[in-house]
Design a protein that fits this description.
Elements lengths: L2 H7 L13 H12 L10 E6 L2 H9 L10 E8 H7 L2 H25 L3 E5 L4 H8 L5 E10 L27
Antiparallel strand pairs: 1-2, 2-4, 3-4
Length: 175
């Protein structure tokens, strides 16, 4: 799939079939995340693919943004201990979340390429998800991504008009 086509076709999928996602597909997604740009090449990300149906159900209970009963939930974390040692205060404050977001976009585009759907989620109970995953204290959850084969019709996106978003050089009032 050409990049332009992928950018046009990618949607947030909120309804998934029960068809399983293969381990090879998950490894391809992890590799796509690993290839993402990283501020100062820090690469403090950690990828947790939740495939156990019971664990997925439990995380789903504490994540109101998840929907559609995905067969896989990806939790992208930052290893803040690693970032503290190998990065800077800016890395810890901004770089880690920026890196996680870029990895997430790579992963979601690769998911589309593999015929999978995805949806990035930031609404979850951090303490509950941390406890369920038994995360080390210095790991910070950055984002959850639901993954699986889409079910049903995919709705078109509503995009704001370009003229509301595009500026050259400086702010200019509309004439």
């Amino acid at each position: 799939m050409e990049l332009s086509e992928a950018l046009e076709k990618r949607r947030s999928i909120r309804s998934f079939s029960s068809r399983p996602v293969s381990e090879d597909q998950l490894l391809a997604l992890a590799q796509a995340g690993r290839l993402a740009p990283s501020a100062s090449n820090l690469q403090s990300w950690q990828f947790f693919f939740l495939t156990d149906p019971e664990l997925v159900k439990k995380v789903d209970l504490f994540s109101p943004g998840l929907s559609g009963h995905p067969p896989v939930i990806l939790v992208i974390c930052s290893d803040m201990g690693y970032a503290k040692i190998h990065g800077s205060p800016n890395s810890e404050r901004y770089g880690c979340i920026m890196d996680a977001a870029m990895a997430a976009e790579n992963i979601m585009l690769k998911a589309l390429d593999l015929g999978l759907g995805s949806c990035a989620v930031k609404s979850y109970n951090d303490a509950a998800v941390r406890k369920l995953l038994k995360l080390p204290e210095d790991y910070r959850i950055e984002i959850l991504i639901s993954l699986g084969y889409p079910e049903g019709e995919v709705r078109p996106r509503r995009l704001r008009p370009m003229e509301e978003l595009l500026h050259f050089n400086a702010w200019q009032e509309e004439v």
